[in-house]
Design a protein that fits this description.
The protein is of the alpha/beta class. It folds into two domains: 10-198, Class I glutamine amidotransferase (GATase) domain (Rossmann fold, 3-Layer(aba) Sandwich); 221-331, Homeodomain-like (Arc Repressor Mutant, subunit A, Orthogonal Bundle). 41% of the residues lie in helices and 13% in strands. The chain has 13 helices and twelve strands. The chain has helices at residues 22-34, 98-104, 120-125, 141-147, 171-186, 188-198, 225-232, 241-247, 252-263, 267-285, 290-297, 302-313, 317-325; strands spanning 10-15, 36-37, 41-42, 44-49, 54-57, 63-66, 78-81, 112-115, 133-134, 152-153, 159-162, 165-168. Helix 1 packs across helix 6 (188-198) and helix 11 (290-297) crosses helix 12 (302-313). The longest helix is centred in the last third of the chain and has 19 residues, at 267-285. The radius of gyration is 21 Å and the shape is globular.
């Protein structure tokens, strides 16, 4: 009998550099490494390389030994460049050294490129961000703008995704960026499963504020959590700002201010994002027609759902469903 071999896994190559920040190096390994098909089969092959294999200095009191060299970049489907403390010296240079340039030369045209935090300085110095929208850590935005005027820098977002080149803000935004790539590749169900295992929010839109007033709210003042939980159980129902505020026993003005402090979004922006994410799951996992998906997710009409999908996801619902379920035809 003929045997059928499994298709090769999507290879993610993490390019580490001297002065690496260990937490940021671990993010792509954790997120991509936990992604499973039906909870069992790994979906990614994740490896770490460096321009000069051996002991790599970190920004802490220990070093990391990386044995694989830059030649592995030639087999990458996605390359992720985490931050290094050398990036903070970049403002005096705005360029990359010869070893790093030679490493980048192994990357095939069309490879998906991503940076975490100030790893965006590498992409920009290599010319990969010219004419594209990008972001970086908010503390480094002035230097980035000065060095790379041909890049459209947006310092107010968690991550950007522009023509297969992606950038993210500070540490936690690297989680959002990698989850976004998993969601793009394999859908919300897989990404949400990874997020649950990592105990991180399953979906923060790239356009969410990079810096929010209270990154870790005081438990005594984190008063909008109950309203968020209440809304998630009623996404198919009409929910207004007054309803959310009433759950928290606040005026709409106070509730809106507290909500933005705790999430970085307005209540209605957050609600729309949750509804859109639920619509994605329904498209991936059910055969419900478009009007019922729109109703079940609380987005109203089929036309409204198509408009949201085209604006946020970049494709119509029919194309999205066909990607994950192989369902042909227009919805």
């Amino acid at each position: 009998m003929p045997t059928h071999s499994a298709p090769p896994r999507h290879r993610v190559v993490v390019l580490a550099r001297d002065g690496l920040i260990p937490l940021k190096l671990g993010i792509p390994h954790r997120i991509f490494g936990q992604a499973r098909s039906r909870g069992v089969t790994p979906l990614y092959d994740v490896i770490t390389v460096t321009p000069a294999p051996g002991l790599i200095r970190t920004d802490t009191d220990f070093s990391v030994e990386i044995l694989k060299g830059p030649e592995y970049l030639a087999s990458a489907d996605t390359v992720v460049i985490p931050a290094s403390d050398e990036d903070y010296a970049a403002p005096t240079q705005g360029r990359i050294d010869q070893n790093l340039a030679e490493a980048l030369s192994f990357i095939r045209p069309g490879t998906r490129m991503a940076s975490i935090c100030t790893g965006s300085f590498v992409l920009a110095a290599a010319g990969m961000l010219d004419g594209r929208r990008a972001t970086t850590h908010w503390r480094s935005t002035d230097d980035f703008r000065r060095l790379f005027p041909h890049v459209t820098l947006d310092p107010n977002v968690l991550f950007t995704d522009c023509d297969n080149v992606l950038t993210s803000a500070g540490v936690a935004a690297g989680l959002d960026l990698c989850l976004h790539m998993v969601r793009t590749d394999h859908g919300s169900a897989v990404a949400n499963d990874v997020a649950r295992g990592t105990v991180t929010p399953p979906h923060r839109e790239g356009g969410q504020a990079q810096y929010i007033e209270s990154l870790v709210p005081d438990p005594r003042s984190a008063v909008t959590a109950a309203a968020r939980a209440w809304a998630l159980e009623r996404l198919d129902q009409p929910i207004g700002l007054t309803d959310l505020a009433a759950v928290s026993a606040m005026s709409t003005r106070t509730f809106t201010r507290r909500f933005r402090e705790e999430t970085g979004l307005s209540p209605m922006q957050w609600l729309t994002a949750q509804r859109l994410d639920h619509a994605r799951e329904l498209l991936e996992q059910t055969d419900l027609p478009i009007d019922r998906v729109a109703a079940a997710s609380g987005l109203g009409t089929a036309a409204a759902l198509r408009q949201h999908f085209q604006s946020v996801v970049g494709v119509p619902p029919s194309a999205y469903r066909a990607t994950f379920r192989g369902v042909p035809g227009d919805l």
